[in-house]
Amino acid sequence: MNLPCDDPLQYCRFCFTQFRVEPLLSRGQKDQQLVKQISSLVQIELDSNQATTAAICSMCRHQLTEFQLFRDRCKHHDSIVRDKIEGDQSSQNDMWFAVEPLGDGDDSDEDDTPISNDDSFRSVPVSEKQTKVNFWRAISRDVGVIPEHIQRDLELTGFYRNASLGMISPTTIKQIEQDMREAVEFVISQGANRAEVLRQYYGTVYCKNPSKFKFLAGEVQTILSITAAVQENGITEYLNKASLSQKVSSRKEQLNASGKPDNADILAETLVEKIQDYYKQYTTDSREFKAFIARLPRQKEIDVRQKEDGSIFAFIHCSYCKKHLQAFVDSRWNVWRVYNFVKHTQKHYRVENIRTAKRKRAQGGGETVIDESDDIHS
């Protein structure tokens, strides 16, 4: 098979098409990330000279993004399953961690971990409606106000949270206008209020005359601005921002649905002591360990709350990444459980998982092994 032409910038390096082709390094820093993505996903290594003289088509760029999203989704859902298994095991087997400082470059895996992997708010469901609000809010920060009916139109025609959102052209917009008529009628056929549906999807201008619907000139520019933003930043960035917004919203919802117990300060102080004592068992003279201990949360960085059912939980502020991790009081043993926090700190200070025996005293005397079930008031 021959090359399409002699100029490597006139055809796609990966499929040989000459349609909608652009230089591989035409978008600055973002394309440096694309080269790394090609290496990671396709195992094609391009040095600086090769990358400079290579081109990629819009479809291959789209396929790479979709592949990355597929990979991220798989890893995310796999982590949920594994965390569930580990969580079940940790409730039956006490877990201790030997602390070991991270060496230079040892935390390279952290960039591969999606924001949504943080299980601090795993137990807090977020509605699909709120997810959509967060997603469009993230994009609107870059492109300005996005009318509600444009958001709904892109959702209805399959562009919502999809990498194809970055591939919309004027021709695509015309196709969306055509698809809308049939799609909206289907929504109405499901029992929705016709007048309300027409307003939601056609806006105030065409809601009473949907057969003539088309996007206004300013709306076309808004859609193209959305496409440009997704092309520039990648759909993953907005999905991650939406995920982060969900966590913030979830924390606010939990705070609003709970109150401070009367002994909140005492509980916070006990939690601080538990975390400090937990790590001090593995005290070393290293400067890294001392710095790590110094950055463990203090009482003012812990927000203790009580739900309506009487259960106690707390948000622990991480001084490294500014996230909030949950701890809770195990009502069976009246102890703080800090698995979320300990697991999270692995990102900042490498820990080695060690299974230990439950607290027991050897018959005939012997040393007591203190585990995570120590009473919080002791």
From TrEMBL:
<keyword id="KW-0479">Metal-binding</keyword>
<feature type="region of interest" description="Disordered">
    <location>
        <begin position="99"/>
        <end position="122"/>
    </location>
</feature>
<dbReference type="Pfam" id="PF07776">
    <property type="entry name" value="zf-AD"/>
</dbReference>
<keyword id="KW-0862">Zinc</keyword>
<protein>
    <submittedName>
        <fullName>Predicted protein</fullName>
    </submittedName>
</protein>
<feature type="binding site">
    <location>
        <position position="57"/>
    </location>
    <ligand>
        <name>Zn(2+)</name>
    </ligand>
</feature>
<feature type="binding site">
    <location>
        <position position="12"/>
    </location>
    <ligand>
        <name>Zn(2+)</name>
    </ligand>
</feature>
<feature type="binding site">
    <location>
        <position position="15"/>
    </location>
    <ligand>
        <name>Zn(2+)</name>
    </ligand>
</feature>
<feature type="compositionally biased region" description="Acidic residues">
    <location>
        <begin position="103"/>
        <end position="113"/>
    </location>
</feature>
<feature type="domain" description="ZAD">
    <location>
        <begin position="10"/>
        <end position="84"/>
    </location>
</feature>
<feature type="binding site">
    <location>
        <position position="60"/>
    </location>
    <ligand>
        <name>Zn(2+)</name>
    </ligand>
</feature>
<dbReference type="GO" id="GO:0005634">
    <property type="term" value="C:nucleus"/>
</dbReference>
<dbReference type="InterPro" id="IPR012934">
    <property type="entry name" value="Znf_AD"/>
</dbReference>
<keyword id="KW-0863">Zinc-finger</keyword>
<dbReference type="GO" id="GO:0008270">
    <property type="term" value="F:zinc ion binding"/>
</dbReference>
